[in-house]
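SEQUENCE AND FOLD
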Amino acid sequence: MRQFEVTVLPEYAGGRLDRMLAGVCEPLSRSRIQALIASGGVLVTGRRVRSSYRVSAGEKVVVRLPAPEPAGLDPEEIPLDVFFEDAHLLVVNKPAGMVVHPTGGLRSGTLVNGLLAHCDGLSGINGVLRPGIVHRLDRETSGLLMVAKDDAAHRGLASQLESRTVVRRYSAFVWGQPEAKSGRIEAAIGRSPADRRRMAVVDTGGRRAVTRYEAKVLHGFASTLELSLETGRTHQIRVHLAHIGHPVLGDAVYGGGAKRIRGISPYHRNAARTVLSEASRQMLHAGCLGFVHPVTGKALEFHAEPPEDMRRVRELLSSGGR
């Protein structure tokens, strides 16, 4: 049994216990936190409470994590593009199409399955189905991820995510041209009231989310953006870009699919169709990841070039879709 203590900050006073912990314990999902609370693994000033308990500033919350259980997952010899590895952590370049961890009925072919075959051990902080996973990328987003081998590394990396010192930069192709060539999008994100499988910018009940963007290249009907995260919410970049009217090219879930072509100038439609035919997924890549090694204290930064499909789209956009 491992445990750590959290002191409720004034900004969380009056909020739900599970929501507060989800905001400060980034490695733990809200569902994982709720399960811990229900099982008595979370104590507020020494007593058990419900997930809906309203916290007060200065209260001491003890979170007790049970020892890791066997994951019940099969290690699989999946080729991994490892950018860095030592005794404490790895940095992996995830391909588009790979799910990070098992979910629902999916129990094979995930990054976790490959990691279990690659490593002797992974941190158990985030639960038996997510060993070593500190942060995630969507299935169809490619790019760099850090993975913890031990709990000390996991806590150190999670602390940097919480304090927003981890460098996470993405490249994306989006429809249209932003009015401002750079900007900051701050809009809370929560479950879409119209479709619970999707996320959306919401007025109430969402979690604070901030994305910065800079337009690197403006094309006739699209733009190349560089984006950085101040927070890390589910589908954050995709939702924020759709919110400002520039969805990620190829992202049919958030307005970046074929229907988008109807709204652009007839002059560009044939070129847009050609470009979209090469975009079999959302054109989003996590190309830069930087952090301080939680054990050695060394500053690390890694860069991964976009994969072949994004390079092809970039060439088509540069040539006007020809």
The radius of gyration is 21 Å. The mean pLDDT is 91.
